[in-house]
Fold:
Amino acid sequence: MKRFLPHSLAGQMALLVGLALLIAQIANFALILNERQKLSLAQNEGPAITRFAGVAADLAQAAPEFRADLIADNSHRGARFALAADSGVAANDRDTAIEAKLNDALTDLALPASAVRAAIGGGTADFGRDRGRNPPSDMQVVRLAVQGADHQWLTGRILTPRRDPWLTMRLGAATLLLYLIVLGASLWLTLRIARPLRDLTRAAERFQGRADPIVVEPSGPDDLRLAIEAFNAMNRRVVMLIDEKDHMLGAIGHDLRTPLASLRIRIESMEPEDERDAAIVKIGEMAAMLEDILVLARSGRAREELRRIDVSALAEAVTEDYVELGRPVTFEPSERYVLEVQPNLLRRALRNLLDNAVSYGGSARVDVVAVDGGVEIRVMDAGPGIAVEDLERVLQPFHRLESSRNRDTGGTGLGLAIAQSIVENHGGRLRLSQAEPMGLVAAIFLPFVVENA
Structure:
């Protein structure tokens, strides 16, 4: 059941308000219709009932020889009374509401009645002949009957205004109109609240601290405007902190490179030679690790401009560089795909993947293919691969698999993390998967449209 319910704020509020209004309007319609029907009964049939009860009371007090004259005297002005052996009202024509009103009127006059009958309709032709014309179309006949102590029935047919046949329809139309007006106003208010929240959510999802602060235009109620303005201010503060971090890392990198270079110069004259070479190697490792840390820290805020280039040609050029160095790397001929990328950073990411493939897989094969929504640059090796449970963890900074990646290979555990950061800066993703029958596939997905965030 839950899967059919709306999940958005606007949808849930619209559903809740709509159902609440519908229930309220149905209840309101039923109450108003009942009251209007009671009012119609009191206004239309009420006078006829009062008149009939009065005639019945007079007839009960009159002497038998005067009853016929009494009935004749009251049979005028749209009314006709008579004494009969039966009520003249069929069982399926009875109107219990009018009978209840008639019984109450007779009780108020302290007039005992063995039975009462009431119905609407019938007998209009007699009124037409009595008056010389047919009754108007907006009139109806109320038939009333009461049984006296002598078991005779006093019957009466009285003309009354016809009940409004369009009452239910008019009330229904008015209720529906009111429901639509209130629902429309509620939906407008819901959308006015939901639209700024949707913009705020999209901005929060897009924000990664890699470009200028995302500014959301304040809109909606004052509470939402304040929240959006606070979000914009927070974005600016976060970007400022990241800029300060970049400047600090740049200064730290400069301050560390200088003493490392000076230390290497001094060590080059150190004896014995084997200890000197080991120290130089360690200093080289420290310099390489420092450079990787700085690249990782600043890759998300790289200032390189986006340029439209052929990514297939870029991958092929990087592959040729490895081939010229005698590395076992091949490039599969691929279609040409022109995308907006940061060429230098993308080369760095691809080189990191190739270094991993050659170092731990023995060789690498590169191809470029089109996929849904973008392009994939795939680097495949034929090495032992990585266990499925480790595929996500190896993308974390400084994470190495002890079985294959250690200090002796020169790895710092930052190559894949740097590649992933660069790819995400392009709005893409880095995916690792097992190759068949063995090996690892590292795929760089680049979307056709890059959104800076």
